Amino acid sequence: MVIGTIADTLTRGVGNVTDTLSETFFEPVVRIGVTGLSRAGKTVFITSLVANLLDRGRMPQLAAEAESRILTAYLQPQPDDTVARFDYESHLAALTAREPRWPDSTRAVSELRLSLKVRPTGMLAGLQGPRTVHLDIVDYPGEWLLDLGLLDQSFERWTEKTLKRLPQRPGSEPFLALLGGVDPNEEFSEPKAKALAEAFTGALHMAREAGFSDCTPGRFLLPGEKAGSPALTFAPMPKPENPARRGLWREMERRFEAYKAQIVKPFFRDHFSRIDRQIVLVDALGAIHAGPPALDDLRRTMAGILKAFRPGSNAWLTQLLRGRRVEKILFAATKADHLHHSQHARLTAIMEALTREARDRARFAGAETSAMSIAALRATVEQTLPHNGSELDCVRGTLLNPDGSRGRQAAFYPGALPEDPSHLLTPAREGAEGWLDADYEIMRFAPAPLTLKPGEGPPHIRLDRAAQFLVGDRL
Ligand SMILES: Nc1nc2c(ncn2[C@@H]2O[C@H](COP(=O)(O)OP(=O)(O)OP(=O)(O)O)[C@@H](O)[C@H]2O)c(=O)[nH]1
Ligand SMILES: [Mg+2]
Fold first, then answer.
1. Which conformational region is residue 388 in: left (phi greater than 0), alpha (psi within -120 to 50 degrees), or beta?
2. pTM for the full model?
3. 134 lines ligand 1 (CB under 6 A)
4. Residue to substitute in 102, 347, 374 for testing ligand 1 pocket (most ligand atoms within 8 angstroms of CB)
């Protein structure tokens, strides 16, 4: 088994230099992928998870902690020389400042290694000394998983699909007008390609702002250090009857292929293929608030994202993974502190329904899946207020002004989620424009100032259960 792992690593050509023999043999490494669409809550999740694993006072549902088997936890230099380190200290400093702030948006893959010294359980407890288990936590944008769907599409087919979708979304007019004015066979020029790519990227950003989830190609929204390179400077364009050799269309097609070969494939090969456990964070409340079209788009996008976890859905990926697979996948609805706990089960049911199809398939393929509602960092407290002769279960926190400054304290009722998720998902699927019998509000709360006792991490909701699902069996 161990030999197999080593051979695998070699053939996959990963520059994983410090994955040394001694580690492979004696100190197990669990690679945990943390993904989600932009603003889903990845950075806050990792920061709070790490803080709560270093100071475990609020982690009673993590079995190894409850059994007092975790002796120490410490951060180590992360093992991949070419991947940015997850900037834990800066993000934590933002969240725990005297006037706490949410961390800045992040744009690329990053990674952190947390090592735990654990006493073994059961029969081995008396025979063996403590073991070290390394948790390599990898943060990457969910948008990049969606790009898997591009691999088996030609430029022509992708253009067709994209141009069909664009007019149904706000903000695509400038791009469509620009595209209408170009002749696909005119001689290629960089300024023209750049203008088209910029207008197309603008349309993707507007769609994202309006709550749409599937805004591929993923790197257009999150270009990272590749911004401005030819592989990121193209746009959909209908195929002319006889594509000219030096024409605009031909070069756009070539760049689309370069995007697949040099941007999409390396991500799957170098990062995705090595993940053991995965958490997919979903801002389901945000999509519900944005309305039925956004919720249905989220459902379809989840199916797209989860294709990456379905062996067999893509021939190239199947060959790359060669039987290796993600062992556990957790789907977590984030920001559950926007709801009173009496509504958490309903949010979880919506999360389950949203990922239903994909979860069934993943389970079939041998991965264990679960759905949960969590808040990585609790920004509210619960409060029950009298209202029209009855009682209303609210949450209370400091509102965040649109300019990012801290507003006033307010109690807030987000609306009652239905017990049956289909009451939301069905109208969304059928193209409803607004919610019929309910109004869902979401406020943005500022993080609350923290006074932590020694040994306590930041307050959260079910972060310990999430950790138990993801790695409990390896500790
Ligand atoms: N109330 C509350 N809000 C949260 C929580 N987690 C995230 N948020 C909100 O969601 C926003 C995005 O969180 P991030 O962790 O930065 O999300 P991300 O997925 O890393 O976003 P990108 O880096 O832009 O892709 C934050 O600025 C907060 O406003 C939470 O546990 N509770
Ligand atoms: Mg982030």
1. left
2. 0.88
3. no
4. 102
